[in-house]
Amino acid sequence: MIEAKLHLDWRGNNLLHFLGSTKALPVIIIGDGIAGCATALALASLGNNISLLVLDDADPGSFKIGESLPAEARRILPYLHPNVLSQLEQDTFDGIHTKCTGTASAWGSSELQESFTIMNPFGSSWHLDRAGFDESLRSIVKSVCEKNKNNKLEKIKFTGVEKSKERWTVFAKDPGVEQQYQAKWLVDASGRKASLGRAIIKNDSLFATYAFFTSLTTDSDHRTLIESTETGWWYTSQLSNQTRVVVYHTDNRNPSSKQARKWGGFLDLLHGNTQHISDLLSGNDYQPVLDGNFPRGTPACSSYLEPPGDENQCWIAVGDAAMAFDPLSSQGMITAMKMGLVVARTISRNLKTEPQEVKDVTPSFKETFASVISDYERKKKYFYSQTQFSGEFWKKRS
Question: What SUPFAM superfamilies does the record point to (predicted)?
């Protein structure tokens, strides 16, 4: 619903190549989610002379919330690597991901308003198995690294960093073994925790609580269903294997947020406050997956990074570490991919630029992202003002 656009030629058609070498690596990327993988793949495509290291401590079996990938990804994914889109389509055919046929929302009123992907020139969007999609990207990064000895993905945990005049020293830990790496450029792709961020500015206190439901019946509804209530908003989407994720969003200090973190409270809020989502679950005989780890909560607030004042520090954030969007926007993954492509171009140009010209590169990047944040905040305020509810949750946002 809310769309944040990067107004950049992110395709990188005329990227500059890094020539020459130093004792330190040109680039280290901390984090190997979508943003980190996108940055690594984009950098690897620039030429064999750009060496990079990706530090990977992800658990491939851990569920990740945030499964909505817009159809626009079809025009972006090929710029990451030729195999990314074909692998996504194959995994969807194999039932790992599911196609999304549209969006139905009861937002401005109690009646559903629908949009269908058949009207989208890019086709249908996806409900992803996020852990599976991220692991697929990591596999492609690994294959790229295996073909180029200058690139490497390390399964190791980032623990700290120090800055000298000309380079960064990165500290990481393998079980029982401390490692050190040096680089000119660091890319923070560590997600909302923003491992390198100097100051994260949070614009609200939105908190998401999510749970899973499964059914033995055939559910033919592949839309994303969104519904606002007095204390917040809900959505549900169908994943693979007749499983639905159901997510409740409210302020983390709202009493209903605490209530939703236990199964009894979650179900009471769901069936007591929603109409369309409750009817969909009941009509398809969905039962809660009574796993001890769920319902589970996670921050969902809008946030952005206060960038360093000195552009010569040679670090940059990408993905949620740079700016995190309200889930209502469904733009987090798309923007992370675009940011990875832009960051790769920025770093490549910096590695080729004379020292006195460095300041001409990073400010343009920061100014562009400032405009993205401004555009996103304007659209977010508009959409939150369209509901019929007048509770405290909505007053804060309208």
Answer: FAD/NAD(P)-binding domain
Residues 226 and 375 in one domain: no
| CA separation for the pair 58, 29 (Å, rounded) | 13
Burial 144-153 (b: 16+ CB within 10 A, else e): bbeeeebbbb
Residue 135's SS3 state is helix
224 is in which domain, residue-wise? Answer: 206-299
Q: Of 388, 391, 378, 392, which Cα lies nearest the Cα of 2?
A: 378
Torsion of CA 329, 336, 373, 347, to 10 degrees: -170
pLDDT digits (tens, 9 = 90+) for 112-152: 999 888 888 888 999 999 999 999 999 999 999 888 877 88
247 forms beta bridges with 210, 235
Bridge partners (DSSP) listed for residue 227: 106, 234
Helix (H) or strand (E) holding 268: helix 263-273
pTM beyond cutoff 0.70: yes
| Residue 295 sits in the same domain as residue 305 | no
Give Cα 177 distance to the centre of its chain: 31
Can you tell me the distance from the alpha carbon of 103 to that of 120, in angstroms, rounded to the nearest whole number?
12
Provide the terminal-to-terminal Cα distance of the chain, rounded to the nearest Å.
Answer: 16
Tell me: do 240 and 148 sit in the same domain.
Answer: no
